[in-house]
Request: fold
Amino acid sequence: MFSGKWNYKEFWKYVLPSVLSMLFISLYTIVDGLFVARYVGTDALAAVNITHPIYNLGFGVAIMLSVGGSALISIALGEGNKERANNDFSLITVVIIVATIIVTILGLLNLDFVLKILGVSPDLYRDATIYARILFFAIPFLGVKVSYEYFLRVDDCANLSLIVTVIGGIINMILDYFFVAKLGLGIAGAGYATVIGIIVPSFVGAAHFFRNPKHIRYIKPSMDLKFLKEASINGSSEMVTELSGAITAVLFNVTLIKYAGANGVAANSVLMYILFIFIAVSIGLTMGIQPAISYSYGAKNYEMIQDIVKKSVTIIVTLSVCLFVLIQLFGNYPISLFLKNDLQTAAMASNGLKIFSVALLIAGLNILGSGYFTAINNGKISAMISFSRSVVLLIPAILILPGIFGITGIWMAIPLAEVGTILLTIFFFKRDSVILGHDENGAFAKL
Reply:
């Protein structure tokens, strides 16, 4: 698969499972919110959104080690060093489990403090407490599930990675209906559905690597601090994205409560669901190409990398324009699914979506840029791109723009951050020596 240039049919054959996987994740995340909004209420939807940074925290720890580690494991396989790949895979799995268990214990012991930091208001406190406890319990299983979604692609089992995701999603959606709509368990029912939908696929992924792996398998690992350090640095951009996402979510929610109350938080929840499903294609495509780029980088097949990046840029730009047009024309339809009985919040979300959706034109290329530099083991540049779009530009925009434009300023924050970051992404791409074909060390390799 990695020996020569792909045509578009071969390209899609390789990345489509990852794209479908991300689309399915976004779909069942939306279904969660839809059941909560329809059967529990707007305040419960706001409580789900306001506690979501807890999910970002657990996901961030897992994805940092999974993305950074999987890139290094793919490079080792490309270099023909299977023994090192097996040791690194086994070691990183153990570290992910231990790290996420620590996060869960610390979170549950300091739950009130966490909710205070998240800016939970008194009217949302009860629902937020229930949902937060469930999210913290789910974090170790989430870490395992996330890691297998990456490692299965490294093991050339992208279709199984998709199957694992689909299994979890179907279980989640069925249990959402059963727990929330039928049994009336409220926000707790949505939480239970999410946890079970995470636990089952994590066991399916584990079974593959214990029974029938293709290229990497579990062995008794030896400690390799250099690898762990490199994996952490290389995956730091993804960790930055998740943790900064948690921070900005708190800022968004605190600002929205100030300017629009719980209705503003609920409106923002709907916009985030819509944004997520549209950028899921870019995230999935980037996840899909990373093992191929890393393997080709280890094998010094730079022509293959250049071709993959060129095709990825073409596809992302085309899809981004099409999706932006669709959301401008038909964006009110998904809003009405969530907020059919709350016309005031629906109107707020509709106004926000027109501005918010500008980010769709640009976000995909920034996601691709960050993912590319992670794949060639240049985590520092990857982190700079992620940090720019999720902290350096976004946080000042959230803090400053609402004071000038009111709630409209909140909707402007993400598009402006993406516009600023695309300039940085283009700068690094234009100077990357692998893309330009000048040498094998990558852009700014000594940064």
About this structure: The two ends are 32 Å apart (CA to CA). The mean pLDDT is 84.
